[in-house]
Every structure is written in structure tokens, then in C-alpha cells.
């Protein structure tokens, strides 16, 4: 899906929540927004605004939600000391339940799918083609200080090359011995 297709899909999502009935209304994002704003005004007459606290798992979802609040002239805020991913807003419960939250979920899902697809494509083209998850192990791997790290695919061109990590380990061990000897010598003085 390209960016233009994503934008068109998001406009259609908003039109659905605005109660659009014709194809022409689905195309017009501004009409949909106006319908939702009118609905919000009507809801406010019977259902007073209450303070809501929303906490998001990532900054992308938070950005989408804040933009949606502002689109409907709602004022997002957070209190001093609250996490950056927390958003506070005063809004009628029925508007949250019937319009705001369901619309956010659909838009956020589409955007996250889009971001995931872009990330997968860039990672596989630039970093590594294998996009699989990390292996799950039964118990923690115990590593000795002198143990080499575990590599998925060690570099081996068929020659027995010297292991740079073992050379580093020898140097580190020799350095430790020198420090230990120096400490003993200083204690005797």
C-alpha cells in the first residue's frame, strides 16, 4: 500500500464514523469532520464531558490520538509528571465509546500496519533479509566472562583464522594479572 492509498483509506474510515451514506460523502473528509463535530455538540447537551486518561504503548499511537482529538476541536493535555505517552482529555463518554475510540482504533491499526510494512521492507533491504523474531530459549544462557559471544553465522571462509576475541581475552587476562600484581606490590609498601 502506498501513502496515497493509505490516506484515502483513512478518509473513508472517518466518513464511516460520520455516518456518511453516499460515495460522494466518503470522499469528502471535511464533510465527515463537520458531521462528527455536529454530533459532538449534540452529545455535549445531554452528556457532560468527563476527564479521560489514555495511555499509549508507543509515540506513534499517541500522535495519532492527539491529532484526532485536535481534529474534533478537543484539547489534549497531560499533567506535570505524567509520562509522555499519557494523554488527558475532557470529552463525553458516549462520544468516546461511539466515535472517538473506535475511529482511533481503526486509523491506528491501518497506520501501524503501514509502518510495519515499511519497516520490514527497509530492514530486509538494508540490514538483513531475515525478518523472523528472536529465538525463544527455555532458560537464560550462562556466559562466562571469558566466553565468546554466540554468533548466528560466524564468518568462516574455509581458512583457520586467528580468533580476534581470543586474542582480546589473552590481552585482558594479562592486563588483569598486571593490575593484581601492582596492587600486591602497593600493599607491601
Summarize the structure.
This protein is mainly α and 189 residues long.
Can you walk through the features of this model?
The structure is a single chain. With 189 residues, the protein is mainly alpha-helical. It has a domain of 125 residues. Helices cover 59% and strands 7% of the residues. It contains six helices and two strands. Strands 1-2 form a two-stranded antiparallel ribbon. Helix 1 runs parallel beside helix 3, helix 1 packs antiparallel against helix 5 and helix 4 crosses helix 5. About 3% of the residues have low confidence.
Reconstruct the topology from this structure.
Blueprint: H1 3-17, H2 23-27, H3 29-46, E1 49-55, H4 59-71, E2 86-92, H5 93-127, H6 164-188
Could you name the key traits of this structure?
189 residues; mainly alpha
Q: List the secondary-structure elements in sequence, H or E.
A: HHHEHEHH
Q: Numbering strands along the chain, what is their spatial order in the largest sheet?
A: 1-2
Radius of gyration: 29 Å
Oligomer: single chain
Structural class: mainly alpha
Shape: elongated
Q: Regions with pLDDT < 50 over 5+ consecutive residues?
A: 157-162
Distance between the termini: 75 Å
Number of strands: 2
Determine the fraction of residues in helical runs and give it as a percent range.
Answer: 55-70%
Count of DSSP H/I helices: 6
Mean pLDDT: 75
Describe the sheet with the most strands.
Answer: 2 strands, antiparallel
User: How much beta, percentage-wise?
Assistant: 5-15%
Amino acid at each position: 500500500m502506498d501513502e496515497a492509498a493509505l490516506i484515502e483509506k483513512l478518509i473513508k474510515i472517518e466518513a464511516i464514523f460520520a455516518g456518511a451514506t453516499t460515495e460522494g460523502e466518503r470522499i469528502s473528509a471535511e464533510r465527515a469532520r463537520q458531521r462528527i463535530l455536529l454530533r459532538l455538540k449534540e452529545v455535549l447537551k445531554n452528556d457532560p464531558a468527563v476527564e479521560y486518561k489514555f495511555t499509549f504503548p508507543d509515540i506513534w499511537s499517541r500522535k495519532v490520538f492527539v491529532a484526532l482529538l485536535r481534529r474534533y476541536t478537543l484539547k489534549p493535555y497531560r499533567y506535570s509528571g505524567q509520562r509522555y505517552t499519557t494523554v488527558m482529555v475532557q470529552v463525553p463518554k458516549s462520544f468516546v465509546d461511539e466515535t472517538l475510540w473506535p475511529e482511533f482504533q481503526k486509523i491506528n491499526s491501518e497506520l501501524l500496519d503501514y509502518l510495519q510494512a515499511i519497516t520490514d521492507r527497509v530492514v530486509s533491504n538494508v540490514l538483513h533479509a531475515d525478518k523472523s523474531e528472536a529465538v525463544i530459549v527455555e532458560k537464560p544462557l550462562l556466559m562466562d566472562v571469558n566466553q565468546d559471544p554466540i554468533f548466528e553465522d560466524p564468518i568462516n571462509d574455509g581458512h583457520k583464522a586467528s580468533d580476534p576475541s581470543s586474542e582480546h581475552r589473552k590481552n585482558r587476562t594479562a592486563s588483569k594479572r598486571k593490575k593484581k600484581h601492582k596492587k600486591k606490590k602497593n600493599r607491601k609498601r
